[in-house]
Design a protein that fits this description.
single chain; four-stranded mixed beta sheet; two-stranded antiparallel sheet; 18% strand; globular; ABC1 atypical kinase-like domain-containing protein; ABC1_dom
């Protein structure tokens, strides 16, 4: 029930070609569109939560999972804002990372250099 990050399930089967990544549908708004919409509102708290979730996910992918999404751009990141059932609690934020077909890992030296930026 907390804010979360989602990677759509990869579809396997006879209708899918091995060289084409097909993922299950995930509902959401492109992050760039959402940012444009937010510029018309003054919900700084929500924007901070989205930023914290995005940065946390990105840094976890790099530092913990050693996973680099090599095609990360606003079209490959969706956001869903889900109202809570009680109608009182802040909405739940879901970030959806799409198209993880082009990924890489950092080599140990590159990873150490990247980590050193934060020291």
């Amino acid at each position: 029930d907390r804010d979360t990050v989602v990677f759509p399930e990869v579809v396997d089967g006879r209708w899918v070609h091995p060289e084409v990544l097909v993922e299950r549908f995930e509902d959401g708004t492109r992050i760039g569109e959402w940012i444009d919409q937010q510029n018309q509102h003054d919900d700084t708290a929500l924007r901070k939560r989205v930023a914290n979730l995005g940065i946390s996910a990105f840094l976890k992918m790099l530092f913990i999972d050693n996973f680099v999404h090599a095609d990360l751009h606003p079209g490959n990141l969706l956001i869903r804002i889900e109202d809570r059932p009680d109608g009182k609690s802040p909405p739940r934020i879901v970030l959806v990372f799409l198209d993880c077909g082009l990924v890489t890992e950092l080599q140990p030296r590159d990873r150490r250099n990247f980590v050193s930026l934060f020291r």
